[in-house]
Amino acid sequence: MDVRNTYDSRKAKIMLTISRIVVYAILIFLSILCLFAFWMLFVNASRSHSDLQGGFQLLPDTYLLTNLVNAWNDASINIPRGMFNSFIVAASTALLTTYFSTLTAYGIYAYNFRLKKLAFTFIMAVMVIPNQVSAVGFYQMCVKQGWTNSYLPLVLPSIAAPVVFFYMKQYMESVLPMEIVDAARVDGSGEFYTFNRIILPMMKPALAVQMIFSFVTSWNNYFMPALILDKAEMKTVPLMIAQLRSADYSKFDMGKVYMFILLAILPVIVVYMFLSKYIIKGVTAGSVKG
Amino acid sequence: MSRQNSRLSRRKSISYAKWGYLFIAPFFIIYAIFTLYPQLLTIYNSFFENYRSGLRQVGPTYVGFENYVKLFTPDKTGSIDILKYTWNTIVLWVGGAIPQITIALLLAIFFTSYRLNIRGQQFFKTVIYMPNLIMASAFSMLFFTLFSTVGPVNDLLLNAGVIPEPYDFFAEKISVRGLIMLMNFLLWFGNTTILLMAGIMGIDQTLFDAAQIDGASSVQVFFRVTLPLLMPILIYTIITAMIGGLQMFDVPQILTNGGGTPNRTSMTLIMYLNNYLKTSKNYGMAGAISVIIFIITGILSLFVYRSLTRKED
């Protein structure tokens, strides 16, 4: 009996070790798959055009700064301007969407009113409808109102963001006791004051997560800006990437091309490096009711 | 929810209702202007002939369902564009989504297994989630350069002697589609992994313990305990991925420079819409395509809505 037991446990141990090795192998393979493209981007952004013609290389070279200067000062693709434009659009979107989504969520969470249930149902129902399906009317309206080549139609709609609203409402339900609101009322705090000075600070972690997500989404957004913006000085980064793709590619300094792509994704990568832990936590919190 | 309601009803003496309306007003005003009105305008447009032909403006003239009829009328070669592009979209989505969901499920199980006790989880999660945040258009441009005939992938394959001469990835249907699927997979599998992990961790741990005590193998535990309990979240994930797939645009648009090459085999529905809208300013046809996409999305979102609000009632 004893002998069989030790035999069984030894067998189980070996099986466990084998499955561990397989699992780590899969994980390492997938990690390499994810990182390979970015590593190649970094390596190739550090090589000169003539060197890039010479073939494949796995380690970075010394042309990173040269390529950066060349890309930064390129005459046809004004990448610093694009990054500035993207930053303005993404930052204003992030601020508006988090503030107003929290306000909407608080309105539904903290108050009782006749249309409350209907309002909530409506927001939930339209949550996953993509904005592409209203793009025709949206574009027509922008043309009629003279909103093309303006950031207004890219930023203002973010005030009505069902997904962010839902996240905020979920978060309130888990951290915000109504007693606090009641206490504030007893102390004579006005409703709006309570929201701005007491509720918002309590929502800080949720606000931070949603600010990051909406900033990134807006920074990466291609469809809508491509519809609204066509003036060179108004273009955001994704439009410049599209421009790069449609340009006569063979005439380009390839080192510069890689540098453009690197610059387009760098801000997000840097933010991610510092905040990945919080970002990954934020992925789940609002999406599924646990 | 119910606890909070009773708490609210206790304070009925003073009505704060107007504050509720005031606080949700900005959302609904902005939604009405920037989404609802454009949505109605889009549907309205789909019944009009309204486009630009060179410098000449045609319409708007009311044509009833003519745009829809035109959309489903075969062209000279006998193919119906919208069906072709719907098929492309489905193929491209399925090709990315199958590995995305399978591998995500596998990884979620690895990460949550006490027995395996995977170390370095934070690192692996950080790495596999990263592509999800990357600008899809830039990612696509990167793949275009990496897989071009003079790019590093061809160099690598030539050096290794796998191919005798550079392979043009962008000339063949299978390689273009394959690259789009690969990119969509890479962009999304980390996200799905994290969602499913949360789902598994939400399952009562005692159920796993009980199954183990009863002598269930890990395969049995997966099929009899984990999978059935994970179903709601899995369905939610699949449907939201479907809705995302329906919107597929950035990756194929940039990779093929808007052409859906070769021979429009990688042209998606939104690319089709974009062509009508931007290139020919054909609001009528673009409107009709939008309405069709809207109907498909509407049906799908009904399922998401139900899965999200089930516990509210």
Descriptive account of the structure:
The complex is a heterodimer of chains A (290) and B (313). Chain A has a domain at 76-247: MetI-like (MetI-like fold, Orthogonal Bundle). Chain A has 14 helices and no strands. Chain A has helices spanning 2-45, 49-53, 64-72, 79-110, 116-126, 135-145, 152-155, 162-175, 178-186, 191-202, 204-220, 223-228, 237-246, 254-285. Chain A is flat. The two termini of chain A are 45 Å apart. The mean pLDDT of chain A is 89. Chain B is mainly α. Chain B has a domain at 81-279: MetI-like (MetI-like fold, Orthogonal Bundle), CATH 1.10.3720. Chain B is 69% helix and 4% strand. Chain B contains 13 helices and two strands; from the N terminus they run ααββααααααααααα. Chain B has a two-stranded antiparallel sheet. In chain B, helix 2 (17-45) packs antiparallel against helix 13 (283-309), helix 4 runs antiparallel to helix 10 and helix 5 (121-129) crosses helix 8 (173-201). Chain B is globular. The model of chain B has no long low-confidence stretch (mean pLDDT 87). At the A-B interface, helix 1, helix 4, helix 5, helix 6 and helix 8 of A face helix 1, helix 2, helix 4, helix 5 and helix 6 of B.
Give the topology, please.
The complex is a heterodimer of chains A (290) and B (313).
Chain A: H1 2-45, H2 49-53, H3 64-72, H4 79-110, H5 116-126, H6 135-145, H7 152-155, H8 162-175, H9 178-186, H10 191-202, H11 204-220, H12 223-228, H13 237-246, H14 254-285
Helix pairs in contact in A: 1-14, 3-14, 4-8, 4-11, 11-14, 13-14
Chain B: H1 2-10, H2 17-45, E1 48-53, E2 56-62, H3 66-71, H4 81-112, H5 121-129, H6 136-146, H7 152-159, H8 173-201, H9 205-213, H10 218-246, H11 250-255, H12 269-279, H13 283-309
Antiparallel strand pairs in B: 1-2
Helix pairs in contact in B: 2-13, 4-8, 4-10, 5-8, 6-8, 8-10, 9-10, 10-13, 12-13
